[in-house]
Amino acid sequence: MSRRTRNAFRLNPLRAALLLGPLALSSQMLLAASFDLPAASLSSTLGRIAQQSGREIVYDPSLVAGHQAPAVHGDMSTEQAISQALSGSGLGLETTSGGTLTLKRLPAGAVNLGATTIDGISNSDSENGDHSYVVTRSVGATKTDTPLGEVPQSISVVSRKQMNDQAVQDVSQAVRYTPGIYGEYTGANNSREQFRVRGFSPYVFQDGLMLPYGESGQGGMSEPYGLQSIEVLRGPSSMLYGQSRPGGLINLTSKLPTATPLHEVQIQGGSHDMKQGAFDFGGPLDDQGVWSYRLTGLVKDSGTQVDHVDNNRNFIAPALTWRPNDDTSLTLLAQYQRDWGGTTEQYYPQKGSLNGSPWGHIGSDTLLGDPDYDQMRRESFQLGYLFEHHFNDTWTVRQNLRWSKVNVQNRSAFNNGYVSATSPVLARLASDIKRNIQIFNVDNQAQANFTTGALDHTLLMGVDFRRSALDNDVVNGSFTSINPYNPTYGGSVSNQYVGRDMYQVQKQTGVYFQDQIKLDHWILTLGGRYDWAKADSAFRPDRANPTNRDIKQDDEKGTWRAGLGYLFDNGVMPYFSYSQSFDPTLNTSVSSTTPIFKPTEGEQYEAGVKYQPPGQESYITASVYKLTQQNLTTVDPADTRNTVQIGEAETRGFELEGKAALTPNLDVLASYTYTDSEVTKSGYITSAYTDKGNELPFTPRHQASTWLDYTFREGPLDGFGVGMGARYTGAVWGSSGSSPSASLNRIKTGNVTVADAAIHYDLGKLAHDLQGTRVSVNAANLFDKDYVTACTNPTACYYGPRRNVIATVTYDW
Asked: What are the two backbone dihedrals, phi and then psi, of residue 686, each rounded to the nearest 5 degrees?
């Protein structure tokens, strides 16, 4: 299996401290193993040696293209096995003092005498992102371990280092500097995370399996400290994942057990009286490395930018890996998370927030609910495993399984508009939501690596099954009115009624295949899938419907994708791809005006260029696309409690992203997004509204961002660093529906630019006793920009996150 060359760099004290774990491998380098590998393509043989030995082999794919390896038999070290495989190829092996194996092209006439040790440590950060913004490999895009530069799809990966450097507190914050995705459009929201990818809402997965994020995002929320990285896959991904929306999906990757000891404790404090403690431990449990573990935990006690609203969290995630031999591994994963406080999702009136009012301005810290009534409680559970077994040089099987559950209670009073045009008083409604969501996922995979003539194949075949269940109980009512310009609290709820009472079960089974075919520099990816989806929705009596109703849905569909790229020796790969999506869509409010939904279907054409310079820690991508979705759902402007299914929507766009360590001191992120969205076929059921020709909601036409981090490596400022960033978001429409009525017409919010900053210092530069200690201060929205992200209607506008300062002390040993 080919691996792209990564940048070697000179050893300095800071890097030595960071890489002490990998250096421990050096004592095992010369241990012999038994190899029995038949003659095969060189890339296949190297991949098998890497799998059997557990050692990384790093090289440019162009070096081994077209080469065949002889049989490798006998008891020998990994270095000796590689040297035997390289016989006659004109390539040589180098081994760094950190244990990383790299290939080089030998001068003409030279003889390969085996492994050569060089002075330096290869930067493995591009593999896991612990100490680099650049992550060069992704499992999520293909479900195989494939370099990002070889995947004909637009993908971004937010690394662990980026999340650390920017002190992110949720997934929405983590993707702020990622192109093609827009989060936080409902402001600083602690009750749900919502995103738009290329104009459409994505599903959220973790380790390739769907999470219970729930209806309108009011389900789980993930703790970013427990994540290794965040993958944003843009474009339809149903061929691999089944139920998926056309804009793409978000795949979170968990922190997994480590082969080297890992110990970290962290303390944070900051704005809104935020106090947080966290720990991350991992490593082998025995001398043979058969058992290893990871234990990550966090406790947070915090307020929010909204008065009287807390945001507290407990989080624990144990993981255990059993690796009885080089061919088999089983990782058990569990997670528990508890959140409690109030909700920051306040529905501010347009007049007084986005626009002026005769009575002044409603501050972004104003609670429009009631501290004695509002309450948010959420408990999340996960239990599952990741299993992999290599039968031989060709066949590998995997089974990934997880059961997830989230219980949510979200009780709040909220704005329902001014009581009159001449009064500053707001009428209020009340909502008490109790929601239970469970998802069981299992994904069975068989992978075959083989050659047919000059073609190298990575064939993936799979069968997956998903069962999701939603129990949803909503009680609505009226609440005492409030003057938001001079609020007093202590109101009460009245006129309560059942707004929704339902139980839904959806089952989906899919079979799929994918073949990644290489011929010299050409890379062809082909895949197909067929899904069967069944659902049963039981609606109990509510105010709109006094009778029980049982709605059954039965959908099936085939989807496919294809992509072709050409990988030049200099790391450039132009590509073109086509892909489809299929999403069996369940309605949560069936009534005479809201029929049973049809599945949404989408297709995309994409062309792009990826550039990953060999030997450099950098990655640049550019892509253009045209994306169409049929049967798109949106909020009904006539009744925001309902959803309608419009006819068809289309987005066209351009995305550009660059990540690089330009020097040992300077790390850079930059991105630009252009999204032209349009409703192309109207599906509204009333002539009072029109949407055809309008933009999609929460889809800015322009977005841009840049982040730079500079760290001094010598002199009196050695170990000191600064980070600066800026994020631009263009105008946003809060809905797609236009109406002659000003009170029901869609609302546009303006352009906004927000600055972020950070300073950090390695205290180990001051004294040896402080080795492993790092302090940092981050400020998001540095200049405290006061802005509205979006308004879905005149009674529901959202303030963006205000300035948030976080101080962090981290100790690693």
From this structure: -135, 145
Strands 155-158 and 227-234, how do they pair? antiparallel
Class of the CATH domain delimited by 137-253: mainly beta
Number of C-beta neighbours around residue 258 at 10 A = 20
Beta-bridged to residue 475, according to DSSP, are 432, 498
Handedness of CA 58, 60, 61, 67 (dihedral sign): negative
| Structure confidence at residue 27 (pLDDT) | 34
Q: Is 592 helix (H, G, I), strand (E, B) or coil?
A: coil
3-state secondary structure of 41: strand
Q: Which amino acid is residue 699, in one-letter code?
A: T
Predicted confidence (pLDDT) per residue in 10-42, tens digit: 333 333 332 333 333 333 333 457 787 877 778
pLDDT of residue 123: 37
Residue 1: predicted pLDDT:
38
Q: Is the dihedral of CA 127, 130, 133, 138 positive or negative?
A: positive
**CATH 2.40.170.20 is right for the domain spanning 254-812:** yes
Q: Which positions of the chain have pLDDT values less than 70?
A: 1-32, 66, 95-99, 107-128, 214-217, 588-595, 635-642, 683, 685-686
Contacts 24+ apart (CB under 8 A), 100-109: 100/22, 100/56, 100/58, 100/124, 101/55, 101/56, 101/57, 101/58, 102/5, 102/8, 102/57, 102/58, 102/59, 103/57, 103/58, 103/59, 103/60, 103/63, 103/64, 105/63
Residues ≥6 apart with Cβ < 8 Å to 144: 447, 458, 460, 514, 516
Residue 262 Cα distances to 22, 56, 213, 276, angstroms = 11, 19, 31, 20
Output the pLDDT for position 4: 37
Written as six digits, the tokens of 540 are 């109990």
DSSP E strands: which ranges in 419-571? 426-452, 455-482, 493-519, 522-539, 549-566
Domain boundaries, the chain: 8-123, 137-253, 254-812
Fold of 8-123: Phage tail protein beta-alpha-beta fold (3.55.50)
pLDDT score recorded for residue 42 = 86
Which of 485, 514, 500, 439 lies closest to 211 in space, CA to CA? 439
Structure token pair of residue 796: 């529901």
592 contacts: CB under 8 Å, gap ≥ 6? none
Angle, to 10 degrees, between the axis of helix 42-53 and the axis of helix 78-85?
170
On whether the CB atoms of residues 516 and 527 are closer than 8 A, the answer is: no
CA 554 – CA 729 distance, rounded (Å): 40
